[in-house]
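Replying to the earlier thread about multi-chain prediction with a worked example.

Input:
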Amino acid sequence: QVQMQESGPGLVKPSETLSLTCSVSGDSISGSFWTWIRQPPGKGLEWIGYIYYTGSTNYNPSLKSRVTMSVDTSKNQFSLNLRSVTAADTAVYYCARRINGGVFDPWGQGTLVTVSS
Amino acid sequence: ERVMTQSPATLSVSPGERATLSCRASQSVSDNLAWYQQRPGQAPRLLIYGASISATGIPARFSGSGSGTEFTLTISILQSEDFAVYYCQQYNNWPLTFGGGTKVEIK
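Result:
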């Protein structure tokens, strides 16, 4: 069964770039869509964007100007870069597989990223 | 952007009772609606997609209904492990959007 694990710094300074990687095990990253979703502490869920294994992407317009996603099929990983972060970007970041047109399953356990100096 | 509104924000229910959660879309999303369960400290888990199709391994006490703009998640007999936050999500239009969640708590 597919399992996903996020990794990256837990603390990022304001104005810098948040970088996270999601490692996929139990299935090849090829042939599927992969997505990032975030959840500020105590709040709801926000879809950030998705990437296809070919590298094509679709980002949430609210974040599009600051987001870049990439995929490394040789490592079975995909990544998120979010530039010019502020405290409002503090959240638990989840990676997930996108299936059936836009449903997320499974999810990684999530990683908390705090933006603070 | 499709705005998803869930009600109530909090639902107090006794174990063994039925829980009915609502989700409303600002415009039609057809049947492209999913439900997720999030227990404290855990990632969300897919329960329902296509408005009424149960995901793999989901107990039969969870059921979904609706289409267009009005959707319902029903938990027929609440178990202790069902006390959690539930989110609806539309995938009919970009960007993909979630509702604000309904917390099901023990009465």
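Chain A touches chain B through 20 residues (CB under 8 Å).

Feel free to reuse this layout for your own posts.
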